[in-house]
Design goal:
Elements: H1 3-16, H2 18-29, H3 31-52, H4 56-65, H5 81-91, H6 94-130, H7 135-142, H8 146-163, H9 165-179, H10 184-215, H11 219-225, H12 230-243, H13 245-272, H14 277-306, H15 312-320, H16 331-335, H17 360-385, H18 387-409, H19 430-449, H20 456-475, H21 478-514, H22 520-559
Length: about 550
């Protein structure tokens, strides 16, 4: 299989099995919410500790007594020096540092474990989709490989950190040389030496980073396709550049070209004022496409290596069982340079759509429209039948609002309103409308899929967003707050609560599966339903974003 064929296979997978593959990439994106939960707990603990010990109230009183002009953009100093020193003393006191540091350590561990689960599920889904199996079911089964993928995260980041040592050593050595160089002439010569040393160290580190990325590029596909453990997957991946140098180089060109294109798109999106589209493009197009190419190439290469050792009868028997893959090991496999025998899996990249001559744009438009209609129907069904999850989510959101308002309303700090509320987003706020809609939908998607982990990250996301809303409400004039939040808030906040309910439902089902009270297939089905509900929420957030960008400023201008 050529790299072009692999690209076509990956693109075909995304076209044909969108609703079965993208849920796992939404799950990957939701790792941010899961990781944020320990940090949120640490910050809340630090805040409560400061409040209970009386260290916070004096600072808030001093902030409230400040002349607002001292904090203006033309002020020579952001804060009076004495207040800045006291603020630093409080922020770096054991009362704050200990809980936040512990929370950061827990968040790091949680991040590694969750990334192990989500990457194992995503690559398993892609592998199944390319092999014409059910990606949703395969993704859930693939989560059992979480230890291997968590280990890959640790290995990759450990090696990348080690790769940066030459550059760091060169910078430290150059700094020491400059510090010990007397005289202006000698100082100039020392500066030249320091720059050259930093460049050499940087080049060595860059070469090391490229080497690490190259040798581990196919470790994930190896773990999934051949069901390997951490060590075997790393060895198998390290052998790919030597066993298939041309194909590997072409794959590298595709990867680099894709990220260059994403960078160009980022610039263009930024110029157009719709930069939030970059996150969606990266999460739901670039990542699954590159994963599909890697899995397709690895599978074809390993199939080709094993075919000479197999008879036609053995190949036919192996193809009948597409649920499990067996690694037979052996000396050749352990070397990482020659792939050992494995069960072959036939890959088919023909487009099953009979309307081959139909215009791609029309087909994509029909697919998007159909997905939105289906998502809206499923969302309405969920609100009717799972309303109690929505009620719990709304209670968590309101609890966060109440907590944020309580924390700031008595601080004495007040934020004024804009001089011209009607022009907050400009005359034609198309860019803000797109950014607001996409950002809020991304928040909702993360809240929904983060619920996989017993629903706790979803509750944390709801409380966090509630805290932000409540904190703003506590420092803004009530009339101004209602004018700026009310018009779109009546749509947006209930939609966030519904997204939270979707996440709680997913967590409930996942908890039942982990306790063997539900079949594994129930979790696969629920992940598919979660995706459809989240897609349905997109329509709601488009409406809310339109109101916030085009209507809310005019209402605020009329009221204020």
């Amino acid at each position: 299989m050529s790299v072009a064929d692999a690209l076509r296979s990956a693109g075909g997978l995304l076209r044909r099995r969108t609703n079965a593959v993208l849920p796992y990439y939404a799950l990957s994106a939701a790792t941010v919410d899961v990781t944020r939960l320990p940090l949120l707990v640490g910050v809340v603990v630090a805040y409560l500790a400061l409040t209970s010990t009386g260290q916070l109230s004096p600072l808030l009183d001093e902030f409230a007594a400040l002349n607002p002009e001292l904090l203006g953009p033309e002020s020579p100093e952001a804060l009076p020096p004495e207040l800045g020193d006291r603020l630093a003393a409080v922020l770096f006191s054991p009362t704050v540092v200990v809980p936040v540091a512990l929370a950061a350590a827990v968040a790091l561990v949680v991040s590694v474990l969750v990334r192990g689960v989500t990457r194992a599920a995503a690559l398993s889904a892609v592998d199944a989709g390319l092999a014409t199996r059910d990606p949703l079911a395969a993704g859930v089964r693939g989560m059992r490989r979480w230890k291997t993928f968590a280990g890959l995260v640790v290995v990759r980041w450990g090696l990348l950190l080690a790769a940066g040592i030459p550059f760091l050593a060169a910078v430290v050595g150059a700094s020491a040389t400059l510090g010990a160089t007397p005289g202006m002439a000698a100082l100039g010569q020392g500066a030249v030496v320091a720059v050259l040393a930093a460049l050499v160290g940087g080049l060595v580190s860059l070469l090391a980073v490229v080497t690490v990325v190259a040798l581990l590029a196919f470790a994930g596909p190896a773990a999934v396709v051949d069901d390997l453990g951490l060590g075997a997957a790393v060895r198998r991946s390290a052998g790919v550049p030597f066993a298939h140098p041309v194909g590997f180089l072409l794959y590298g060109v595709v990867v680099v070209g894709t990220y260059v294109g994403l960078g160009v798109g980022t610039v263009l999106f930024g110029i157009a004022g719709v930069e939030r589209l970059v996150a969606v493009t990266s999460a739901f197009l670039v990542s699954p496409l590159l994963d599909g190419v890697a899995v397709a190439l690895y599978t074809d290469w390993t199939d080709a290596a094993s075919r000479p050792a197999e008879t036609d009868a053995e190949s036919s028997a192996a193809a009948d069982d597409d649920d499990e893959r067996v690694d037979t090991g052996g000396e050749a496999d352990e070397s990482g340079f020659v792939f050992g025998e494995r069960e072959p899996a036939e890959r088919r990249d023909e487009d099953e759509d009979e309307d081959g001559d139909e215009d791609d744009t029309e087909r994509i438009a029909e697919a998007v429209g159909g997905a939105l209609r289906d998502g809206i129907r499923e969302l309405g069904r969920f609100v009717r039948t799972g309303w109690y999850y929505v009620v719990v989510a709304a209670a968590a959101l309101l609890a966060g609002v109440a907590g944020g308002w309580t924390a700031t309303v008595g601080s004495g700090v007040r934020i004024g309103t804009p001089a011209d509320p009607g022009s907050v987003f400009g005359l034609v706020p198309v860019g803000p409308f797109v950014n607001i809609a996409v950002n809020n939908w991304f928040v909702a998607s993360n809240a929904g899929f983060a619920g996989l982990f017993a629903g706790l990250p979803t509750l944390g996301t709801l409380v966090f967003n509630g805290l932000l809303v409540g904190a703003v409400a506590g420092v803004v004039d009530p009339v101004a707050f209602v004018a700026f939040v009310g018009p779109h808030g009546v749509v947006e906040l209930p939609a966030i609560a519904v997204a939270g309910g979707v996440g709680l439902r997913l967590g409930h089902v996942a908890w039942g599966v982990w306790r063997d009270e539900r079949p594994t297939a129930a979790l696969a089905d629920e992940l598919g339903l979660t995706w459809r509900r989240v897609v349905g929420l997109l329509a709601v957030f488009v409406v809310a974003g339109f109101v916030e960008a085009f209507v809310t400023p005019q209402v605020a201008a009329a009221v204020l």
